Structure to design on (110 residues):
C-alpha cells in the first residue's frame, strides 16, 4: 500500500498507473483509494490520510467547490507524484501537532 495526506475539502480526480491514465474498462474496476479514519491538524488545517493500492503511481486532486458559494474560486488540479510508505506515515504522525478522529488503524509495513 501507498499513502498520501489530503487537505479537508479536496477530492481525488484522475489516477495513473504504470501503463498511463487509469482505464476502468481495461482494469474492470475503479482504483482502490480509501480515506482512513485519521487526520493531522497542522496550522488549523485537517490533512486526512488516504491509502492507495501499489499499482497507483500518481493521483490528481482538486478542491471541492461549494456551488452555493458564489465567490468560490476553483483552484486548479494538483498532481501528487510522491506517494509515501507506511514508515513515512508513522514518522509524519509522530511529528504532527495534533491528530483527530483516531480509530483503529492498520498500517501495512513491509
Amino acid at each position: 500500500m501507498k499513502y498520501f495526506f489530503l487537505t479537508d475539502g479536496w477530492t481525488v480526480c484522475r489516477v495513473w498507473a504504470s501503463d498511463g491514465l487509469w482505464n476502468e474498462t481495461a482494469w474492470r474496476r475503479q482504483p482502490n483509494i480509501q480515506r482512513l479514519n485519521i487526520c493531522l491538524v497542522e496550522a488549523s488545517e485537517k490533512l486526512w490520510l488516504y491509502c492507495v493500492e501499489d499499482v497507483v503511481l500518481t493521483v490528481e486532486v482538486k478542491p471541492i467547490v461549494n456551488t452555493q458559494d458564489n465567490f468560490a474560486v476553483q483552484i486548479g488540479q494538483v498532481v501528487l507524484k510522491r506517494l509515501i510508505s507506511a514508515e513515512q506515515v508513522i514518522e509524519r504522525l509522530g511529528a504532527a501537532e495534533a491528530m483527530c478522529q483516531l480509530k483503529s488503524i492498520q498500517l501495512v509495513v513491509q
